[in-house]
Amino acid sequence: MFYETKHSSRDFFKSLGLNFNPFKALIVPRPIGWISTIDENGVANLAPYSFFNAVSSDPPMLYFSSGGEHEQDGGEKDSLRNIRQNGQFVFNLVSSELTKAMNDSASPAPRAIDEFEMTGLTKSPSRLVRPPRVAQSPVQLECTLHQFIDLPPSPSGKSNIMVIGHVVGVHIDENLIVEGRVDILKAQPTARLGYLDYCNVTQSFALTRPNWPLEEKPKKS
Ligand SMILES: Cc1cc2nc3c(=O)[nH]c(=O)nc-3n(C[C@H](O)[C@H](O)[C@H](O)COP(=O)(O)O)c2cc1C
Fold this sequence. Notes:
This protein is mainly β. The protein has 4 helices and 14 strands. The chain has a single domain (30-200), classed as Roll (Pnp Oxidase, Chain A).
């Protein structure tokens, strides 16, 4: 199957035998940026973003991307709005046991709702920024805004805005540290697949980087 992305209507995908645009099912698994922010009245906000990843390690930078509007009253989503106001946010890792709370925190709640309270999560104060951390999360990264990038809007005019942050503080649960390394399998992070599907990281393997020339030549068939 091949298609050009200038086509994006539901009917177009139906004509290909697809129920939905498959794009989000093709770049997988996507880590989930569970982003906490705070507004000018001190109301905390927490929401998941799977258009999320690290973009450099030295300095440590990450991004998430907000598409569309706040479902209750239009305008920008709370995370974006709060970061525009104060330039600060926190990434919280979604361990397997936090999956339900993460999903609940995506509900289109009114702006005044604090998703920590709504989902029964505990706030931990951050060290360097104002937004609180999810205490139950085993990794939290305190971030300051580096840059907003306006991506092209959707054909229906919905905005897509990329938020790039500089990680200024790193919290790691000591229980994850085994023999000097972070054993992420202990957290079994939840990641996003397409549609309404998710996965957890439950297995890993190591590969050493190859020298040049390669020691083992690929066999010719
Ligand atoms: C797993 C998951 C991933 C999501 N990823 C994104 C995303 O990458 N970008 C986005 O704009 N919304 C995403 N959403 C939807 C937002 O979380 C949702 O719109 C949320 O209500 C925004 O909250 P806020 O207005 O409090 O910032 C995602 C939802 C879920 C459950």
